[in-house]
Task: inverse folding
């Protein structure tokens, strides 16, 4: 990869302040497997003229992008880019703390992260909303406005407001009383955050169901409908994410990381990590890009 491509992709020291916008002409045609601590959004404009469809791999899934599609690579997720020969992709990178520090967004992050490939033909309304704000960020940068970074941040927040509203409006939760849907949604978010905060401990379905005031059976159904995965898998994924954060520090032994993340043995940790991330914890640590 050319040096200018590396510089365009990684401006980690600036991402705590402003988003990093990668314009098509600076976007790498191919970029190998890597991960970092910021969120990366890859978008292919609806009017893109292509001779080949670009591909983005996130964890073990390979997403073929069509015009109008958006792919999210969340903080800590292994991803790569290939076949971007026409250089039509647009990139946006920003620090995840910019969402985590705002309570209104923080409670939605567990659901945001269940989305990776937003296909225009499946989610046209969401795709359109995302592109409106991405284009506003690009416009602010290209015009060289005095406060373009602030405008870009505002557009980014507006984009996630639209994202969150889309999730709320399209999530079907089987409340006995439809007026209780918002309350049920909120309780699922509370459960997700409880799991995230306590995933290194032994967690049972009953414990979390009791915490939010539901029966085990009903909570299990509700949780899977909201998050698209079952309770056990969700807990496992949160433990892997906790391990990912610890793997940044090369001085911490992997065995220690396994136990700190809530795994009962190093063999289980290695097996589960590879199952979900497609590589061993040791390999994952090598893919880190500062």
Result:
């Amino acid at each position: 990869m050319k040096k200018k491509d590396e510089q365009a992709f990684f401006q980690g020291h600036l991402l705590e302040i402003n988003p990093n916008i990668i314009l098509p002409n600076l976007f790498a045609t191919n970029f190998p497997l890597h991960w970092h601590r910021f969120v990366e959004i890859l978008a292919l404009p609806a009017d893109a003229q292509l001779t080949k469809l670009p591909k983005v791999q996130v964890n073990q899934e390979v997403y073929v992008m069509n015009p109008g599609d958006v792919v999210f690579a969340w903080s800590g997720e292994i991803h790569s880019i290939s076949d971007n020969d026409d250089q039509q992709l647009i990139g946006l990178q920003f620090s995840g703390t910019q969402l985590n520090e705002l309570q209104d967004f923080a409670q939605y992050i567990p659901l945001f992260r269940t989305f990776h490939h937003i296909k225009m033909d499946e989610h046209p309304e969401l795709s359109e909303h995302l592109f409106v704000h991405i284009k506003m960020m690009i416009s602010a940068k290209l015009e060289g406005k005095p406060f373009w970074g602030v405008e870009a941040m505002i557009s980014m927040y507006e984009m996630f407001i639209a994202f969150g509203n889309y999730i709320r409006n399209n999530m079907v939760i089987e409340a006995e009383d439809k007026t209780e849907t918002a309350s049920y949604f909120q309780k699922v978010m509370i459960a997700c955050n409880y799991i995230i905060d306590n995933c290194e401990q032994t967690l049972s379905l009953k414990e979390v169901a009791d915490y939010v005031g539901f029966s085990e059976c009903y909570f299990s159904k509700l949780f899977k409908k909201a998050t698209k995965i079952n309770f056990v898998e969700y807990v496992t994924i949160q433990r892997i994410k906790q391990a990912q954060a610890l793997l940044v520090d090369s001085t911490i032994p992997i065995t220690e990381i396994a136990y700190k993340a809530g795994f009962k043995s190093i063999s289980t940790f290695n097996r589960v990590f590879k199952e979900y991330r497609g590589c061993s914890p040791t390999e994952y640590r090598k893919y880190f890009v500062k």
